[in-house]
Amino acid sequence: MNLKPKTYLDGITSANFEMVKKTLQDSIDFDWTKKKTVEELRSKAFMTVREARDVVKSELADVKRWEDDESE
Known about the structure:
The protein is built from 3 helices and no strands. It has 72 residues and is mainly alpha-helical. Helix 2 packs across helix 3. The protein starts with 16 loop residues before the first helix and ends in a 12-residue tail after the last helix.
């Protein structure tokens, strides 16, 4: 049995840019939760948890108010 560990890229790169863009747009279009968006970025764009959370925070902070972040 030859199992290879997943290789993670450094955040958004030229190799995963289109997938990140599509995933973020799907998140808005289909009203995904933050958790679902992070999971999708991790699995489809091969990001670490921290990278995916940072992307979601920086890219969607002004677009969408997350229900699990309402601390005000």
